[in-house]
Amino acid sequence: MVVANPDFVTVEARALRVMPGTLAATYEKLGGEVKWMGKPGEIIYKSAMSMVGVDAADCIAVGDSLHHDIKGANIAGISSAFITGGIHAAELGLSKFGETAADPSVHSLAAKYEAYPTYVLPSFTW
């Protein structure tokens, strides 16, 4: 199996939806071989930087997944902004959009996933 989007879940209308990474992880546990492509793999970040001709120092990854977005940024050596109101909102005890997560909760969850954001934001809006 080749999985081009290894996200495990996504947020749709404030509910989590299963993504291809969940299927691939199950397939792998059953003994199947999986080729993981995408975050947190370093090649995705390096390829994106190469495509636009920038260095790691000029980049920031923004995402709501500690396991994929933030860990990937850590691996690639770039800064990151963790959006707490996404897929980890319930784990952080957040119940409404834009609510700020407590620092100890963020630190604990970051340690759990071994993914350490440079910045922490409650939401990402235009």
Automatic annotation (TrEMBL):
Annotated GO MF terms: phosphatase activity
Pfam families listed in its UniProt record: Hydrolase_like
Give me the Gene Ontology terms describing cellular component: chloroplast
**Spans traversing the lipid bilayer:** none
Q: Known Gene3D superfamilies for this protein?
A: HAD superfamily/HAD-like
Q: Write down what this protein is called.
A: Uncharacterized protein
